[in-house]
Amino acid sequence: MKRAIRSVKIGNLTRVVLWMTGALLSFSGMAVSIRLLSARLNLFEILSIRSGIGLAIMLVLLALKPAYRPLIRTNRIGLQVFRNSVHYAAQYCWALALTLLPFATVFALEFIAPAWTALLAVWLLHEKLTGSRIGVVLLGLAGVLIILRPGVSDFHPAALLVLLAAVGYAVVFISTKLLTSTETTFGIIFWMTVIQLPLSLLGSDITFPMRMDQSAVLAALTLGIAGTTSHYCLTNAFRAGDATLVVPLDFLRVPLIALIGWAFFGEALDAWVFVGAGVILSGILWNLRAEAYRPH
Question: What's the mean per-residue pLDDT of the chain?
């Protein structure tokens, strides 16, 4: 019996890791696309591309697969509106920071969100705050501090945008976890695109597609697809595991985006990024092992 329970838990952990891998790659693709598009479009226009392509994907699936249509029904429209309004504000702050700061700095500062999420999950979701879950947050934050080395470089005011976005993302993570108890993954993403597209169009010039060349079109397609797959993967990860297990895995975005920024945009990359990444990874591996052996 114990072996069967442990097998199920390891299976859930594996699903969490796989879904979060998809989310990490998607978020990184979004960051690169936003940086490229910001040379031609304002942030409202960029975010309208994200929501517009996402909604188009949803509508095509609904047209081709009638079985998906019942999945968009929701009994929690208030929570959907709250989640997506907070998410849009956080996303705007995050996207603006991406145009002003190095990728690694933005992603590293964003990871104050897991600490907020862990605390909110205990309060609102009644999840257990185990020693390994506390440890993975602390080690994650320590790794972020190693990468940023506060005090070594000058403070940039745009960093406050990221910290504000991080608080918003923590609220979004908790709201997503609450929605997964009654709503489908398809439905959560559908309502995200429906609610956020009008918000983006309010600040967009309707002729903005005319300012896009072939490279911008490719970046726009990447943004739209990655923006949809990121939340599909993230929502399924929350469905497979507790918020305090899922969110710390997101720390791996820091070293990944640092490498992408170095490879594509010539951003500085030094040994401290890898030292911090090692600290982050050690916490994640510790927590995954503890979760696999933790009794019910």
Answer: 83
